[in-house]
Amino acid sequence: MDRFNAMRVFTRIVELGGFAKAADSLQLPRASVTILIKQLEAHLGVQLLQRTTRHVSLTLDGAAYYQRCVQLLADLEETEAVFSTRRQNPRGTLSIDMPSGIGSLIVIPALPTFTALYPQIELEIGLNDRPVDLIREGVDCVLRGGAALDESLVARPLAMMEQLTLASPAYLERMGTPSSLEQLAGHQMVEYISSASGKRFGLEFVLGSELRPVNLSKVVAVNSSAGYFAACEAGYGLIQAPRYHALRQLAEGTLVQVLADVAVPEMALTALYPPHRQLSQRVRVFVDWLVQLCARPGTGLQR
């Protein structure tokens, strides 16, 4: 039995929640995965996993062994990278998840520069506004806008994104264009509902050192960035969003900036990854590349 391979299979079963998913992820026959785990348990003399027809869970021994496996496998990957050309030429699959706007408007258009530098890294990219369980879903790294909610993850700051207050021309023609916060009385907003926390977001402004929330009446509330912009363009009220996401609409005239003299809080953009993957060369080079990308002029992330 190849113990390191068995450990790799075991950790993937835990992370994905099943034998079949682990086998598919590792491109192994399902029977081989079952046999490896039986051999590993026989070798250790303990039961690592409790199996039912629908669920796989860790025993107490399995939970302790999983934590050691994660660290050992991370150490092995780093050690191999130090003594091989993989340090200069990392290879393998890198699974990333990010908001659809960031992905489609900023990251993916710039990816040719990354893949030219690291041609042996294969990227699997998820574009989601929903929260992702990195461990269970086998994701190496996520990009998120706003406060990082999970303190168990390593957080790498990428940018503080400028935000704008926006409306459609048809809405402003119907409701009037506000030139001060006092003139917002009687206006409407599109409410954004976070799919990660369920929190509802109205409008926020910065007056000196004071953060002033403004909640207006609403007809529509949405939980995706695409829906948020679509509702605004359809005339349902004011929104606030990162400038990069509105560049096309501003250029085409489907949205216009309002209250330009009243500041909106900046939004943090952060790369997050599990602590046991912080030594992965694939994650490291990708996050370093993201830092450079987000600092590049013309992305619309910053002023």
CATH topology label of the largest domain: D-Maltodextrin-Binding Protein, domain 2
CATH class of the largest domain: Alpha Beta
Main beta sheet: 5 strands, mixed
The SSE string, one letter per element, is: HHHEEHEHEHEEEHEEEEEHEHEEH
**Rg on CA atoms, Å:** 24 Å
Annotation, overall tally of beta strands:
15
Oligomeric state of shown chains: single chain
Descriptive overview:
It is a single chain. With 303 residues, this protein is an alpha+beta fold. The chain has 3 domains: 3-82, Winged helix-like DNA-binding domain superfamily/Winged helix DNA-binding domain (Arc Repressor Mutant, subunit A, Orthogonal Bundle); 89-160 and 269-294, D-Maltodextrin-Binding Protein, domain 2, CATH 3.40.190.10; 163-265, Periplasmic binding protein-like II (D-Maltodextrin-Binding Protein, domain 2, 3-Layer(aba) Sandwich). 40% of the residues lie in helices and 22% in strands. It contains 10 helices and 15 strands. It has helices spanning 3-16, 19-26, 30-44, 60-82, 100-117, 134-137, 169-175, 225-233, 243-252, 281-294; strands at residues 49-51, 56-58, 92-98, 121-127, 141-145, 154-161, 163-167, 191-193, 200-201, 203-207, 210-214, 221-222, 239-242, 256-257, 267-273. The protein has a 5-stranded mixed sheet, covered by helices on one side. A 3-stranded antiparallel sheet has the order 13-7-14. A 3-stranded mixed sheet has the order 9-8-12, covered by helices on one side. Helix 2 (19-26) crosses helix 3. The longest helix has 23 residues, at 60-82. The protein is elongated. InterPro entries: LysR-type_TF_proteobact-type (IPR058163), LysR_HTH_N (IPR000847), LysR_subst-bd (IPR005119), WH-like_DNA-bd_sf (IPR036388), WH_DNA-bd_sf (IPR036390). Residues 1-59 form the HTH lysR-type domain. Keywords: DNA-binding, Transcription, Transcription regulation. This is LysR family transcriptional regulator.
